[in-house]
């Protein structure tokens, strides 16, 4: 949930730290700080607020330090204050630590350290790490860190700087990601590759229970027992253009408009030149003789799983269920060696999903990772992998990764059904042809943005929204409500249209905008009847539909957005796009921070 950056080398470190932190703000942005070795002395800058606010207080031009670490925070333990901002120092002020994760046994560690004479300045769990390292500074710094972290329970990624060792940074991880980077002028560490794009030419991924020593020349890695570990470098393939707004006002709007490419690339990589075969090389070892399926995911990825549940149950004759990952571990799910568990995560590091995956592995389930990031923990711990090709997504509210997940899950379902002989080659070819139209259909929806923006202008002052749908569009109603509440801070609910009469109907009045997703392919007459119920309570009806010139619908609704006609397998993505645009334009009109909405972080690495 936090972002870490560090550099040791020949270049001034402060500009590199701030550049990296700004690129990591999607991971958290309620406070920020840096620690540098300026003229051989530990120098600390911290404050509550965003990275830009901290940068404005630091006279970058007068600082010449070549070694430093930085952090942007999403608060877990302790309020977002300057005192709780990272980096944290030991008692002498000579050791600085930045940390992502949660130290579960920090209370007992803190009590023991206080009893030994250590003085704490913050309410965070992270500060114990600086004092633990201080306890073992009779050892070499690398060994001291390895010893200290072996006493910590929970998930962590950390970087440590010592005034007594000015040309080294020590980093370690367990459960939270860390990337090592090699550039022409020095060595980097960061939470995610975008932080060092353009500065590092090669990267390596630190594995769980490993510690690395960074110097200007490179790095070496050991495990927590002190054994040397190989950590191979690979080239950085991301470019700086992918992490710029490219003329758009916000990253979110840019990423909404990138969906034709994101979906197109996800499909193109996996569909053969004959447009009738699916190639998923990451599943070559997967046994497809399963007797039930679980999708495990969080947030928007969970909604993608719900869509897949609807699509897969039409072509696979086994029980299929999408489960919120944090709940999966708490329930006594029926899992056997013939269970297939698909873990869906944009980052591949979402801790709740990773923990649920491990629970499934304990019961010998077959597992597949569906991720947007190569080399993630969820990928490494799964039996097989399917990649989305959405590219880097910087806006905290997921947009293009959601559409790419639905596309990839659709292909995965067709692949498995074909391998098992559940659908014919002709059926598979027909559905693939439908999916191949999807990028063009998304482009067509995007041409309606001006109309959607006008709709936002009418309703941005509303205090509540209700989103209704049935079947495979119900998860899209959930996603539409989530997007709106995430970035505009308007209360919104997504509900099955048929369930409205069992509760939400009590909320409907002449002030309530009700967004209804209705398609000729999905219980059209039933949803029409639900719209009648809304109008009987004087609700304001906004309809998204693929059916034109229906007098029965026209007489009921207040506003209509006509969408392209498409096959059932393509509907969820097509109906998603206008809801993303509606949420975006409402949020802009309300003056919220669209790319970095309050209290949220993109990669959630704490439970």
Average pLDDT reading: 92
- Stretches where pLDDT is under 50 for at least 5 consecutive residues are none
Total separate domains = 3
* CATH class type of the largest domain: Alpha Beta
Task: Give the name of the CATH superfamily of the largest domain.
Answer: Aminohydrolase, N-terminal nucleophile (Ntn) domain
CATH architecture field of the largest domain? 4-Layer Sandwich
By DSSP, the count of extended strands is 25
What coarse outline follows from CA principal-axis ratios? Answer: globular
> Which percent bin holds the helix content?
25-40%
| Biggest sheet record | 8 strands, antiparallel
Oligomer: single chain
Q: Evaluate the radius of gyration.
A: 25 Å
Helix-strand makeup class:
alpha/beta
Keywords for this entry:
607 residues; alpha/beta; Glutamine Phosphoribosylpyrophosphate, subunit 1, domain 1; Rossmann fold; 3 domains; eight-stranded antiparallel sheet; seven-stranded antiparallel sheet; 19 helices; 25 strands; globular
Structural write-up:
The chain has 607 residues and is an alpha/beta fold. The chain has 3 domains: 3-238, 4-Layer Sandwich (Glutamine Phosphoribosylpyrophosphate, subunit 1, domain 1), CATH 3.60.20.10; 251-435, 3-Layer(aba) Sandwich (Rossmann fold); 449-590, Glucose-6-phosphate isomerase like protein, domain 1 (Rossmann fold, 3-Layer(aba) Sandwich). The chain is 34% helix and 23% strand. It has 19 helices and 25 strands. The protein has an 8-stranded antiparallel beta sheet with strand order 3-2-4-1-10-9-11-15, with helices on one face. The longest helix is centred in the last third of the chain and has 21 residues, at 400-420. It is globular. It starts with a strand and ends in a 17-residue tail after the last helix. The model has no long low-confidence stretch (mean pLDDT 92).
């Amino acid at each position: 949930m936090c972002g870490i950056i560090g550099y040791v080398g020949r270049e001034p470190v402060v500009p590199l730290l701030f550049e990296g932190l700004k690129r990591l703000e999607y991971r958290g942005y309620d406070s920020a700080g840096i620690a540098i070795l300026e003229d051989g002395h530990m120098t600390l800058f911290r404050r509550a607020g965003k990275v830009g606010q901290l940068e404005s207080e630091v006279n970058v031009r007068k600082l010449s330090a070549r070694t430093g670490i930085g952090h942007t925070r999403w608060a877990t333990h302790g309020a977002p204050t300057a005192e709780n901002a990272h980096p944290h120092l030991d008692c002498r002020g000579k050791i600085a630590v930045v940390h992502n994760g949660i130290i579960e046994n920090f209370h007992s560690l803190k009590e023991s350290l206080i009893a030994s004479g250590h003085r704490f300045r913050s309410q965070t769990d992270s500060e114990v790490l600086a004092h633990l390292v201080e306890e073992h500074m009779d050892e070499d710094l690398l060994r001291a860190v390895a010893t200290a972290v072996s006493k910590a329970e929970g998930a962590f990624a950390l970087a440590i700087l010592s005034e007594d060792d000015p040309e080294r940074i020590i980093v370690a991880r367990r459960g939270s990601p860390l990337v090592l980077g090699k550039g022409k002028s020095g060595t980097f560490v960061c939470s995610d590759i975008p932080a060092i794009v353009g500065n590092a030419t090669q990267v390596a991924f630190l594995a769980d229970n490993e510690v690395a020593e960074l110097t200007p020349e490179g790095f070496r890695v050991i495990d927590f027992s002190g054994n040397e570990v190989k950590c191979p470098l690979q080239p950085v393939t991301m470019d700086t253009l992918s992490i710029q707004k490219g003329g758009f006002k916000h990253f979110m709007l840019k990423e909404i408009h990138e969906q034709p490419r994101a979906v197109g690339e996800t499909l193109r990589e996996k569909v053969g030149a004959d447009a009738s075969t699916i190639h998923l090389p990451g599943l070559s070892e997967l046994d497809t003789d399963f007797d039930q399926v679980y999708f495990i995911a969080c947030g928007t990825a969970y909604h993608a799983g719900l869509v897949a549940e609807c699509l897969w149950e039409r072509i696979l004759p086994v029980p299929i269920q999408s489960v919120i990952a944090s709940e999966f571990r708490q329930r006594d799910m029926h899992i056997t060696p013939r269970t297939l568990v698909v873990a869906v995560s944009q980052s591949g590091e979402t801790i709740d999903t990773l923990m649920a995956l491990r629970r499934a592995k304990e019961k010998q389930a077959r597992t597949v990772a569906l991720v947007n990031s190569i080399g993630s923990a969820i990928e490494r711990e799964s039996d097989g992998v399917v990649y989305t090709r959405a590219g880097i997504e910087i806006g905290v509210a997921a947009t293009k990764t959601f559409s790419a997940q639905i596309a990839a899950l659709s292909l995965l379902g067709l692949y498995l059904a074909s391998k098992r002989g559940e659908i014919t080659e002709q059926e598979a070819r027909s559905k693939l042809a439908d999916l191949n139209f999807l990028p063009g259909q998304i482009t067509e929806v995007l041409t309606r943005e001006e109309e959607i923006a006008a709709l936002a202008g009418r309703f941005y002052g509303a205090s509540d929204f209700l989103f209704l749908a049935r079947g495979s569009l119900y998860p899209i109603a959930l996603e539409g409500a989530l997007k709106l509440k995430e970035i505009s801070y308007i209360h919104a609910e997504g509900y099955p249209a048929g369930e409205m009469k069992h509760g939400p109907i009590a909320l409907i009045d002449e002030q309530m905008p009700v967004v209804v997703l209705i398609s000729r392919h999905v219980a059209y007459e039933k949803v029409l009847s639900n719209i009648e119920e809304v109008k009987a309570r004087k609700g304001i009806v906004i309809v998204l539909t693929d059916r034109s010139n229906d007098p029965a619908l026209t007489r009921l609704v207040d506003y209509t957005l006509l969408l392209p006609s498409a096959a059932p397998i393509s509907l969820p993505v097509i109906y998603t796009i206008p809801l993303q645009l509606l949420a975006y334009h409402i949020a802009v009109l309300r003056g919220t921070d669209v790319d970095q909405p309050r209290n949220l972080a993109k990669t959630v690495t704490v439970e």
